[in-house]
Amino acid sequence: MKILIVGSGGREHAIAWRLKQSPRVTEIMAAPGNPGIAEIAICVPIAADNIEGLVELARSERPNLVIIGPEVPLVMGLADKLRAIDIPVFGPSARSAMLEGSKGFSKDFMAKYNIPTARYRRFTADQAAEAKAYLDTFDGPPYVLKADGLAAGKGVVIPETKAEAETEIDAMLGGKFGSASASLVIEEFMHGEEASFFALCDGETAVALAGAQDHKRVGDGDTGPNTGGMGAYSPAPILDAAMQKRVMDEIVTPTIDGMKKDGRPYRGVLFVGLMIDETHGPRVVEYNVRFGDPECQVIMTRLKDDPLPQFLACAIGGLAGCARLERVSDPAVCVVMAGAGYPGEPKKGGVIGNLDEANKLPGVTVFHAGTARQGDDIIANGGRVLTVTATAPTLQDAVTRAYQAVDTINWPDGFCRRDIAWRALKRG
After folding, report:
1. Could you give the count of Cα atoms lying within 13 Å of 148 in the half-sphere of its Cβ?
2. What pLDDT does residue 428 have?
3. 390 with 332: CB under 8 angstroms?
4. Fold topology of 2-93
5. pTM over 0.90, yes/no
6. Cβ-based burial of 391 (10 A; exposed 0-12, middle 13-18, buried ≥19)
7. Ranges of the chain whose pLDDT falls below 70
8. Which DSSP string corresponds to 138-199?
9. Superfamily, domain 193-321
10. Using only C-alpha atoms, what is the Rg of the chain?
C-alpha cells in the first residue's frame, strides 16, 4: 500500500516510522515532511495548508490512504476534498474538525450532550465589559481564557488575578491571537490532574487506543507560558483500566454518538484532553481532532501491533471488526528539545550534531520536528525542533535513556525540560 502523510512535525515522523515497519506498506510519501522523515519516505515540498496542492498530489499519486497530521488542514477541509476524489482519509471532515477548530462550538456541543466539562460562557469582540463581569461569577482566580479558534496550542491563558484577566480579555478580543481570538471562551478553572486520551473512530464506532500525559508549560515544575508541548510519557498511571472505561462511557462514546446525530460523523483519532479529580471524575478540557504532539511519539513507540488496519478502517469503516491494537508493556518517554527563545521567537540556524549517536542508544528514537537540511548538516528551523523518545522496562529507565540521548546531542542553542514524567515518578 502507498501511504501519504500530511505534515512536517515529530508527530508525522513518528507515524511514518511506525508504518515503515508494516508489512503491508510498500511506499510512504510525506508532504512536506522533514529531514528525519526523508530518511524513510519520499518528501514532497507541498505545505500542509496548501489544500489544492495536496489534492493534486493525491490525484496524481492515488495513495491507498492519506493520514492528515496537523489540525489546520483538517479544519480547512482537506479530508473532504480528498474523499470527493475517492481517496481514503484518516482524519475528520471540516464539520467534524470544528471540535478543535472552535472552542465555542465544542463547549456548546458538550453542553448539548451532557458531556462533563467546565462551566463557561462565550464572548465576542464587542462584549469585553460582559466578559469582565462574568469573572465575578467565579469564586476567584485563576481564570481560564481560551481563544475560540486555532492558535497553535498557545491560545489558552490562565491569569492568576482578576486584573490580569481583565487585561488579557482586552488583549485577546483586541487581536492578540489574530482572528483566532475574535471571540473568546471564559471557563472555570478545573482542579485535578491533566491527561490525554486517544480513541480511534470510524463515524460509527470508537475504540480506546492509549493514554498519555503531556507537559504544556515551558519550564521545569510546570512554570512559564503554555507551549505546544515540552514532553510526554505513556502509559499515564491516572488512566488505569477503570478510568479509561469511564472516559469511553462518559465522554468518547457520547461524543461520537452526538457527532453522528448532528450529521458530522467523526473519522480518525479523537484526542480528549482531560482533567481528572476524585470529586468530578474525568472532565473535558478540550478536544483535538488529531494525534497530539509529542503524545503521538510515545504512543507509536509503544504499539506492538501494526496500526495500519485500524487506520484504514477509520477511513473506510469496519473498525468494530478490527482486532484491538496491543500495546507493549514498556513505558515510553519523549523529551522535546526546543530552540532558545521558544515559545517566543526561537533561535534558528544552529547546527545539530551527534544525532546518529543518540539514535544508536538502547531504546532511543529521535524524531525530527523543526529541522532543515543545509548541505550535510541538520540545522534548527523551528520552535520545537527534536522529540527525543525512549522506551525501557521501567519509566525511570525510559527517562534516563531519553536524557542520555538529549545529552549526547550537540546543539548549544537547544534547551529542554529536565522533569518530564515527574508526576508518574512521584507516584512511585
Report:
1. 19
2. 67
3. yes
4. Rossmann fold (3.40.50)
5. yes
6. buried
7. 153, 428
8. SSSS--EEEESS--TT--EE--SSHHHHHHHHHHHHTTTTGGGGSEEEEEPPPPSEEEEEEE
9. ATP-grasp fold, B domain (3.30.470.20)
10. 21
